[in-house]
Design brief:
The structure is a single chain. By secondary structure, the chain is mostly helical. The protein contains 16 helices and no strands. The chain has helices at residues 2-51, 55-66, 74-98, 104-110, 116-133, 136-159, 165-187, 201-210, 212-215, 224-233, 235-268, 274-308, 315-341, 346-366, 371-395, 404-407.
Length: 412
């Protein structure tokens, strides 16, 4: 219960920062500039998440199995440094490519976000170590810091009446720089076990690769829906769409937080005791996240107008549909973490691959029909991914049984 609260409170802080910064940036910048900012945030985030090749999940898994901080080998350190440099170059190339047709001042404004990618890579690796060790306070401090700084920075821009796309991108970069400083501070408290072999590149890449496809979800990580809206409907439409997404992130973050707790605890349990724990966590999460999604969907019409203004009223039906997507993505992400904790990372990849044809067809049909059509397409594809992930999760638990007295664990 204590660790659940330790994760829930940071989740609410992250969601509050996202909504707060979204409200202020939308009001200060307007729909078009808000669309540019959304893409500037998207590029380094996607580059870091895809480029790490599922390695954070592998680090969390092996750390949890070892029960202590596992010292990385020199080859792992060299590999991560080389990977980070490569991803920074890729990030710069994507910024040049996607903003090449826009006015020169737009490219100059978003240029500082080039360095956000290496900041994110370092932060997620340190977060994964704390997750695997069950150090949830340090984990949450590390992952919350950039979001809180980002919200505070946007508030400062509004208070000083100096808001612009350029200043917002600079604040974003500084927020992640502070996040790196905090991650360094929390990492300095880690002490490697003296016995046991160090982490090897081959083991990390093998585990991360098995679940890699699941970590590059076109909707959760690549944000393909945002790219479709940007490409076929323009920056103003993306401004409305990203405003609507500010609400559906809460169910997703709750599911992610539960998964971050469940993965190391599932991995630490004996295999015969995992089935009861997995079923219990999944059922309770489905009820809680489902209720949250319904309440938010009913409140969205009032919240959008009150928080963002009448100018963003077109976002209301989009936000309501995205609440359905948010619920299904949250449950699929939880199923993925439970699969990884059970030593089956490939299950997440299979579920993701199964949804790709549906997503491709749905987005193709919706591309030029407005943000609402794109939102409906995401709901359909996320339903297929959840269906397959849930089936794979339950399939692996069918033949496991244990006496009732042994099924309960203190962690459940």
């Amino acid at each position: 219960m204590e660790s659940a609260l330790q994760t829930l409170v940071p989740t609410l802080l992250i969601q509050g920062s996202i909504v707060f910064s979204g409200i202020l940036s939308a009001r200060l910048l307007g729909p078009e500039a808000r669309g540019y900012l959304a893409l500037a945030i998207l590029i380094p985030t996607v580059t870091a998440l895809v480029g790490t090749f599922g390695l954070p999940s592998a680090v969390a898994y092996y750390t949890a199995r070892a029960g202590s901080y596992v010292r990385p080998s020199r080859s792992v350190v060299a590999f991560l440094i080389a990977l980070t440099v490569l991803l920074t170059i890729v990030n710069a190339g994507l910024i040049l490519l996607l903003f090449s047709s826009d006015p020169p001042w737009v490219l100059a404004a978003v240029a500082p976000t080039v360095v956000v990618t290496p900041f994110i890579v370092f932060q997620v690796m340190v977060t994964a170590i704390h997750q695997g060790l069950g150090q949830f306070t340090l984990m949450n401090v590390t992952r919350v810091t950039p979001f809180v700084c980002w919200g505070g920075g946007i508030l400062l821009l509004g208070a000083t009446r100096s808001a612009s796309l350029s200043s917002a991108c600079l604040i974003l970069t500084l927020a992640y720089a502070v996040g790196v400083a905090v991650a360094l501070a929390t990492a300095s408290r880690l002490r490697a076990a003296r016995d046991g072999p160090p982490l090897r590149v081959r083991a990390l890449v093998r585990f991360g690769g098995q679940g890699f496809v699941g970590t590059i979800s076109p909707l959760e990580n690549l944000r393909l829906d945002q790219l479709v809206v940007w490409t076929f409907q323009g920056p103003a439409a993306l401004g409305y769409y990203s405003t609507a997404q500010a609400f559906y992130t809460l169910p997703r973050l709750v599911g992610q937080s539960i998964g971050m707790l469940a993965l190391p605890r599932t991995a630490a349990l004996p295999k015969i005791r995992r089935a009861h724990f997995i079923r219990q966590v999944f059922a309770v999460a489905a009820a809680a996240i489902g209720l949250l999604a319904v309440v938010l969907a009913l409140a969205v019409p009032w919240l959008v107008v009150f928080l963002f203004g009448e100018e963003y009223a077109p976002s209301i039906p989009v936000a309501q549909v995205l609440m359905v997507t948010g619920f299904m993505l949250a449950m699929r992400r939880l199923a993925a973490d439970l699969l990884r904790g059970d030593g089956r990372p490939s299950g997440d990849s299979l579920a993701e691959i199964a949804s790709w044809p549906v997503l491709a067809i749905a987005l193709t049909l919706a591309a030029t029909r407005g943000p609402l059509a794109v939102a409906i397409a995401t709901a359909v594809a996320s339903f297929v991914a959840l269906l397959v992930a849930g089936w794979l999760l339950s399939r692996g638990l069918r033949n496991r049984s244990v006496p009732q007295a042994a099924t309960r664990s203190p962690d459940a």
